[in-house]
């Protein structure tokens, strides 16, 4: 893909600042999404921070999440929550809108969404 040109997604997104911008654009959308909002705590700050750590690592940056919390084991961590196909798609929709706000390169937006589809659908448990 031309927009990555040997870079990790983490680097292409702008490193820590780019990941932070994406996560901060994403979570207000999640909170407003009727299928997702009720699954999250009112104080979403800790969730935002964990997502920042995880996406940094997931997209090829430093292993921030693992350093703080151990192996991500994201499917297991999501098991207490009813994750349906509809919720996975709503989550991806929120991410798509956040990417549209924070990433100008359409190829990079597509690569990020493609990379996130695997986990989003892997977490389905209901």
TrEMBL record:
Keywords of the record: Heme, Iron, Metal-binding, Transport
InterPro entries for this protein: GlbO/GLB3-like, Globin-like_sf, Globin/Proto, Globin_bac-like_CS, Hemoglobin_trunc
GO function terms (MF aspect): heme binding; metal ion binding; oxygen binding; oxygen carrier activity
CC cofactor: heme
Gene3D superfamilies, per database record: Globins
Domain of life: Bacteria
PROSITE patterns linked: GLOBIN_FAM_2 (PS01213)
Pfam families: Bac_globin (PF01152)
Family: Belongs to the truncated hemoglobin family. Group II subfamily.
Protein name: Globin
